[in-house]
Amino acid sequence: MEGTQAEPSFLSGRAGLVAGVILAGATAVVVGFEIHALALIPFAALVVFWAFYHLDSLLLAVVAITPLSVVLKESDFNVGLSLPAEVMLAGLTLFAFIRFLHQGRLPWPILNQALTQVILLQLGWMAFTILFSEMPLVSFKAVLSRVWFIIPMYFMLGTAMEQPWVRKLIFPFYAFSLGIAAIWTLSVHSQYGFSKETSTWVMFPFYKEHTMYGMALAFVYPWSIGALWRSQSLVWRFIHLGLFLLLTVALVFSYTRAAWLSLVAAGAVYLVFAWRISARQLLLIALVAASSLWLTQDQWMRIFTKNDTVSSDNFSEHIQSASNISSDASNLERLNRWASALRMWQDRPHVGWGLGTYQFQYAPFQKSSQLTFISTNGGGMGNAHSEYIGPLAELGWPGLVWVVLLITMIFRTGVGAYRRLAPGTDRSLVLVALLGQVTYWVHGLLNNFLDLDKGAVLVWMSAALIAWAGRSGAGIRG
What we know:
By secondary structure, this protein is mostly helical. It has helices spanning 13-33, 40-53, 55-65, 85-103, 108-111, 114-128, 136-160, 164-190, 210-229, 234-253, 257-274, 279-295, 297-306, 315-320, 329-347, 358-361, 389-395, 397-420, 425-443, 453-472, and strands at 70-74, 79-83. The protein has a two-stranded antiparallel sheet with strand order 1-2. The protein starts with 12 loop residues before the first helix and ends in a 6-residue tail after the last helix. The model is unreliable at 1-12 and 474-478 (pLDDT under 50).
C-alpha cells in the first residue's frame, strides 16, 4: 500500500482498449436484456479505472460520498450495507490486497508507529475472539467490516496524506456533503414543525437515526468554525459562514443531547490548547474535579433521582432531561443496555461473546425491574450504546483495554505533533482532527458508531491525519 499514485501503464494502450470494449458490451447487455444485477458493472469498472489512475482522489470521493450513502438491510446477511460508500470501501480493501500481492510493498512508515500497532493489535484481538464467539459468522462479518473501514481510511488515506491537497480536502469533502444531508433533513423536519418526536427519523435515508446524525455534525463542527475564521477570500468566507450556520441549526434540531455535550467537551479541550495548559496543570485540574465529584456524590445522586424532566420540544427541558434517570425512557433504556452488557461480561470476562453479537444475545440478561416501554427482546433495536461497555461484553476485558489504548495513542500522537508543527494550515488541521476525536469519544460514552461507515470514516480519516502529523511533524511548516 506504499504510494497512492497509479501506475498508468496497467490500463494504457491495448489493455485500455480491451477494457473499454468489455465495459461497452456489458452496458449493452444490461440495457438490452434488462438484467438489473449487471447494472453495477459500469460503476464498478469506473471505480477500478479510477483506483489505478488516481487513487488519492478516489479516496476523497469515498469520504464525500459517505454522508449521502443510504443503508440497505440484508436480512440473510444480518448486516446493513451503506451504498455506495461501504461497497467502495470493501472494493478498495480488495484493491489494496491485490496490489500488495503484485508489488509486495507495505507502508512501513505507518506500520512503525505506535498508534498503528495498537490498531492492528486491536483488530487481531477481534479476530482471535471469533474462535470463542457465540455466533462466529456474525463476528467474522463484523471483523471483516472493520478491516474494510480501516484499510482504506487509515492506511491508504494515511499514505495519501503526504499530498498537502489531500490533507486540506478531507474535512470539507465530508462537511459539505453532510450539509446536503442536513438541508434534506431540515426540509423534511420542517413539515412536522421541527418536533422532537419526529427528529429521530427525519434524516433517513442518509442517517438511520438522530444520534448518528448528531455525532457526524458534532465531529465536523470544530472544522467549520476554523474554516470560517481563517484567512480567505470574501466569497469563501460567505460560503463557510453559510455552512457553519447550517450545521448549527442542524445540530440544534437534531435534539441529540450527547452531541451537544461532546461539543462542550471539545470546547474545553480547545481552551487547554489555547491557554497552553501544561500536562501537570491539567492533571491537577482533573484531580480536583474528580475529588469534588467524589465528595459531593450523594448530592449529585439526589439531583439525578429527583429530576423528573423528560425530553421534549422545549430545549431547556430537553437539556435538563439528560440527568433524569428516574423517568426518562431513553436514559433508562441506556442503563438497561449497560447493565445487560456488564452481566454478559461477568458471564464471559476474558473473551466476551464475540464482536457484533451483543444485540442478539443481551435479551436474557435483562432484568424485569429495569425494562422500559421501549425495551425489546429482539435483535433489531441496536447495541450496547457505548464504545466502552459494548467491547467489554463482546470482547472481554481486553476489548475495553484496547479501546482505552487506542484513544490514548490517538491523543498522544496528535498532541505531540501539534506541539512540533509550526503555526499554519497543517497545525490547524491536526487541532480540528483532535477536537473531532474528542466529540466522538465523549459521545461514545452514550452511543457507538465505529461499526458503521458514517462514524468509522470520520474516526479513521482523522486518525490517519494525526498519524501523518506524528510522522512528519518535526519537519513540516504550515
